[in-house]
Amino acid sequence: MRYIEFINKYKDLPNVELEAIYFILEEVNHLSRSEFLLKRNEGIEQELLTQCTYMVEEYIYHSIPVQYLVGHAYFYGYCFKVNPNVLIPRFDTEVVVDQVLKETKKMNATSIVDVGTGSGCIAIAIKKKLPQVKVVASDISLEALKVAKENKEILNVDIEIKESDLLQNINEKFDIIVSNPPYIDESEELSSLVRNHEPHLALFSPNHGMYHYEQILIQSKNCLKEKGIIIFEIPSNHSNELVEIVKKYYSIIEIYQDLNHLNRVMVIRT
Length: 270
Ligand SMILES: C[S@@+](CC[C@H](N)C(=O)[O-])C[C@H]1O[C@@H](n2cnc3c(N)ncnc32)[C@H](O)[C@@H]1O
Prior knowledge:
By secondary structure, this protein is α/β, with parallel strands linked by helices. It has helices at residues 3-10, 18-28, 33-38, 46-62, 66-70, 94-107, 121-129, 142-154, 192-195, 200-203, 206-209, 211-220, 239-246; strands spanning 72-75, 78-81, 111-115, 134-139, 160-163, 174-179, 224-233, 252-257, 263-269.
């Protein structure tokens, strides 16, 4: 079967994103986007076709995210191993890394802790760009930390990985606390791709999605150096609610937008 025939077979089925089919074809056949487009009229090798068919059908008929099927996802230009124990790194989160890099340079930061590291994507991307800065990556999930450790090895970075319930097991002070914590309310509407397959520990937070933020704010007092800052990824639709909570603990709050002009990053200064 030719690539183009494979695409045509599936692309018009309900709830199918063309990009997901492209992703599977490119990753299984080890093709860049331009190589893939050039090869569209060529045949797919039988063994690879079997793999692609299995994956596309798992995606279409069982709503399995394509990154879990392929086993990796791209973030900040790096390839991260992922499995159902970790959230799939999102493009939207890249602006959080951008902000950390900017703030680190501005304040000459030497130490950063990433709370709820999951695959390790934020911590590792930061360390790749700032090898001289000490980076600690923590999570409560041992299964997630296993993936973060593998990514640390694969991407060859020297970060420290720690099991911790938020900041409870972090016994030192940092210039920057960064976190993309769970922030979805259980009752919120979510695609089945996300709700049925991504780890609930990574998605949901009690108290209208605000619990983890508030706990980090409370615990941060013991883990921030003087003039230290907190950088949060935030839910664009609940940023006002979060501002009200942060005001109970800190007074300097800035909000930055992502490429879609949605509130996405909060910087809290002490
Ligand atoms: C939204 S995911 C973010 C993962 C990754 N940092 C990213 O941006 O893709 C939230 C992460 O927080 C972790 N987490 C949930 N509750 C936690 C807690 N009490 N302490 C530490 N980590 C927690 C989850 O295991 C998950 O890896």
